[in-house]
Amino acid sequence: MNDFTTIPDYGLSWLEASGDHSDIVLSTRVRLARNLQGHAFGTRARVNDRQAVLANFKEVFARSENLMKGTLLEMKDLGPRARRILLERRLVTSDLIGKTEGDLPAGTAVHFSHRDPLSVMVNEEDHLRVQSLLSGLRIQESWEIVDSLDEELGQELPYAFHHEFGFLTSCPTNVGSGLRASVFMHLPGLVLTKEIGKVLQGLTQVGLTFRGLYGEGSDVVGNFFQVSNQTTLGKSEEDLVDHLDKIVRQVIQYEMQARQVLLRDARGVTEDKIWRAYGLLRYARALSFEELMNLLSGVRLGLSLKLLPGLRVYTLNKMMIFTQSAHLEQAVGKDLGSEERDSHRAAYVRRILSSEGDVITNS
Amino acid sequence: MPDNPCDNCGSKAATVNLTQIENNEMFSYHLCEDCAAQKGLEATTEPPASPLPDFLAQIGDEPREEETSNSECSFCGLAFTVFRETGRLGCPHCYETFESHLRRLLRRVHGGTKHVGKIYLPPDPTVSEIEKRMEALRRKLNRAVEAEDFERAAELRDRIRSLEPV
User: Fold this and answer.
1) Element (H, E) at B100
2) Chain A residue numbers touching B42 (CB-CB < 8 A)
């Protein structure tokens, strides 16, 4: 089963750009880390621990029809390309599918709910990772649906919970609430006006952390940033979620101000950058993923500043997903070398822009 | 070529142990003084990605305590030294085994050690577990009412009712 037809919207509903501020905030994710009593987790989990956890989970899945109405995918049943597609759609992490080809950890699986935009990863770094992924800025809503499933799951499975430290996790940075709330933000204004360093430093001073969305380690590509809470212990889940929401809204204000500054003080240069980016996307014959992300950043900014009529955020969001390597290979039907990939990527972008995003120009 | 060459330049002896966090993973580097100074400089020209490296580097410099330096979790076999290197615990019992060290670590990382979020009620709860849980739910209910989120308030009220003795 490699076509994910039983996963609602193929797991892509979060691309639809329907939440608040969806031009600046691409998506919101809230995840809870949970472990079961009586089993080792993470690096100390042996094969039988992992299999027992998965077996327990599958048992709940089988008997609680209403709760678990959804699709369960065991990673061992998927081919390597299918696993990479899940990773590229941000539905699983690289820990779940194994970092290298022959390296699939035992008992790994992911469950997609048919009721809500929720999934549960089984046997990642922790036994269970319950996560929601919504488009735009919707932190409170994401938290509520995750909380709701967590409540129900916790009644079926015995979680490891400590009277002082809270929910026990593999990494101490997750202990307590086990909650990591993140938003993916596009901040070209702050980058171009060179304010981004100050803003990011400010985040770390209020208990938040950030990283680049793509790229190795902490590299930033395409002016995308993932902002999340750093602390998970000593604050209630509601406080963590409220706090992130408040700070993210401030960052959105700063970004909007920075964009206005660009329009006011450097309109010509900004417009030129944006149109050049559009032109390359529309006509280039070869695009590396990194170049694509940088061009998309310019076009996304242009769309937000209303300089590119006829283009939709949804189109741009799709472009980020379907141009990744496993997706391209799936579309073409074979493995691709890096030059072939770059050329197929460019072809996909030209096609989608000419059908969905042909910008109306009158000059 | 020295016996323990620097991870970075490979030509001088490693005398400094540098620990960094990237994306919640810990990396340990053994560097010569020059490369360590360079890495330290590089790190300060960018905004810090996370305050964790400073905390954990500090812990790395602390003298080892006698009571935990040789210990091992009796359930999963995780050695304290391995935990220090990887930053990962192995099972719920590790939290008891390494409790005092963890308390210090958690205080540095999170600024506290007490969980104040939602209280977990296992499938077969004791009376005091139920009470703690109801208290936490009542607090949530008050918040929901204050925020005029009556749908959530109703859901929480139902949960509280289902816990009350019959």
Assistant:
1) helix B99-110
2) none
Which distant-in-sequence residues (6+ apart) come within 8 Å of A353 by Cβ? A281, A282, A315
Q: What is the pLDDT along chain B (166 residues), one digit of tens a residue?
A: 556 777 777 777 776 666 555 554 555 567 776 776 665 544 333 333 444 444 555 555 454 454 455 689 988 999 999 998 999 999 999 999 999 999 999 999 999 999 999 999 887 778 877 888 888 888 888 988 988 888 889 988 988 888 887 6
- CB of B136 within 8 A of CB of A151? no
Residues of A whose CB is below 8 A from B89: 41-42, 44, 168-172
Chain A nearest-CA distance from B22, in A, is 6
Pairing of β A179-186 and β A161-162: unpaired
- Give the strand order in the sheet containing A224-229: A70-74, A109-113, A118-122, A128-135, A25-34, A179-186, A224-229, A208-212
Q: 3-state class of B52 per DSSP?
A: helix
Give me A209's structure tokens.
């952390």
Contacts of B107 (CB under 8 A, 6+ apart): B113
ipTM score of the complex? 0.83
Cα angle A238, A64, A5 (rounded to 5 degrees) comes to 85
User: Is A20 in a helix, a strand, or coil?
Assistant: strand
3-state DSSP of A341-353: HHHHHHHHHHHHH
> Which H or E run contains A83?
helix A80-88
Nearest to B91 among A44, A159, A161 (CB): A44
Query: Which chain B residues are within 8 Å of A144, Cβ to Cβ?
Result: 152
Size of interface A-B (CB pairs under 8 A): 141
Residue B136, min C-alpha distance to chain A (Å): 10
**Interface touch B115/A234, C-beta < 8 Å:** yes
Query: Smallest CA–CA separation between A312 and chain B, in Å?
Result: 32
pTM for the structure as a whole: 0.80
Contact A233, A177 (CB under 8 A): yes
